[in-house]
Design brief:
With 355 residues, this protein is an alpha/beta fold. It has helices spanning 7-31, 38-48, 74-81, 84-87, 103-108, 119-127, 174-182, 197-200, 214-220, 249-254, 256-275, 277-290, 297-312, 325-337, 347-350; strands at 59-64, 90-94, 114-118, 132-136, 144-149, 164-168, 188-192, 206-210, 228-232, 243-248. The protein is 44% helix and 15% strand. The strands form two sheets. Strands 2-1-3-10-4 form a five-stranded mixed β-sheet. Helix 3 packs across helix 11. The longest helix has 25 residues, at 7-31. It is globular. The two termini are 25 Å apart.
């Protein structure tokens, strides 16, 4: 069992470790093409990577993304591919996510050590009594949007009134419902499932979508962006951060070093992914092809670029993974306003990540 350390120490050292791992990988990539012997190359890797003292015996853990393999999770794929997890003393198994494997259900049943899921979902789980903690808020912003065809007469928010809208089930409905509540809009809700075909075939007037995914799917289907009216929810005061990393509180308390190393290596994976697009897309497409997702490289390139905006924001790499108290409270208050939680969990009990 790893010795406990102060939470502040964990939160301060994550970004430092992430940068060191990423920089070491970059130095390796520049040096390896030379005529070093295999033995000298291996020695160089060992010297460049900041191996922890306990790394001689790797700690086995697992990580479950919330959806199927795609560039939304590229940083974790690259952290494994480039050896960042192993350099941090971790043997990480990346599990296959998707609709058949709800992330929080697996976490609560101890089917995974870490998972990736929405902040809104995490707050609801904690408010309901689940001992889940957020150890890194990877997405700083919301990517959710509403999309309509201009030919339907929808040009402004008020034009949405009394229209038919396709919405996903579960927590994906929370931001749009908050929008309707804020602007006193009444719409007929039609359930969406795994595709936006209902919108493409004219079955609904408006549809919810993620900017990094379904919006580009529409463009790839042949729709001209000028034919669409889009509403980014973040432009209407509903910028709820989405993807974050979670573990059980017992994991955090028992193995804080494991948590710290997983978070810092994951952040290093993201920073590397953004700096090495071609290599990253090669890896993402391998994961996607193995899962038979049916995606294409152009779509994954779009997704990686949009995810970069969500994670880096204005480009400040020192704040990757940080959950701001104000963002947390805004999301929690939306849940309370919709009657989905009764009380807001204390921020310091919920968030244990970098600062």
């Amino acid at each position: 069992m790893a010795p406990q350390q102060p939470a502040g120490s964990f939160r301060r050292t994550v970004s430092v470790r992430a940068g060191a791992l990423r920089d070491a990988a970059v130095r390796r990539s520049r040096v390896m093409p030379t005529c070093l012997s295999a033995a000298r190359a291996c020695l160089l890797i060992l010297l460049l990577v900041p191996w922890p003292a306990e790394a001689a015996e790797l700690t086995k853990i697992s990580f479950l993304p919330q959806w199927i393999p795609q560039a939304q999770f590229a940083g974790y794929f690259m952290a494994k591919e480039k050896g960042f997890y192993r350099a941090s003393g971790l043997d990480v198994e990346i599990l296959r996510g998707g609709p058949a494997s709800p992330a929080f259900a697996a976490l609560e049943s101890r089917g995974t050590t870490f998972c990736n899921d929405w902040l809104l979902t995490g707050i609801q789980k904690r408010a309901a009594g689940a001992t889940v903690v957020n150890v890194a808020q990877m997405f700083r912003h919301s990517a959710m949007m509403l999309i309509a065809r201009k030919e339907s007469g929808i040009r402004s928010l008020t034009d949405l009134n009394h229209k038919r809208i396709g919405l996903w089930e579960g927590d994906f409905r929370i931001p749009p419902m908050a929008l309707f509540r804020r602007f006193n809009l009444t719409l007929t809700i039609v359930p969406l499932y795994s595709t936006i075909n209902l919108f493409l075939k004219g079955g609904v007037d408006v549809v919810s979508a993620m900017k990094y995914n379904e919006y580009n799917t529409m463009i790839q289907s042949g729709i001209d962006p000028d034919e669409l009216t889009t509403f980014d929810l973040r432009d209407f005061g509903l910028d709820f951060p989405e993807d974050g990393l979670y573990c059980l509180e017992e994991t955090y308390n028992r193995d804080p070093h494991v948590v710290e190393h997983f978070v810092s290596a994951s952040i290093a994976g993201w920073l590397y992914a953004f700096d090495h697009e071609k290599e990253t897309l090669d890896v993402v497409m391998r994961y996607a092809d193995e899962a038979h997702t049916g995606t294409n490289r152009a779509h994954q390139r779009w997704m990686l670029a949009r995810v970069r905006e969500l994670i880096l924001g204005n480009g400040d790499k020192t704040k990757v993974g940080v959950l701001k108290r104000g963002d947390y409270l805004r999301a929690a208050e939306a849940l309370r306003d919709q009657g989905l939680i009764r009380e807001i969990p204390p921020f310091d009990r919920f968030y244990r990540g970098p600062q």
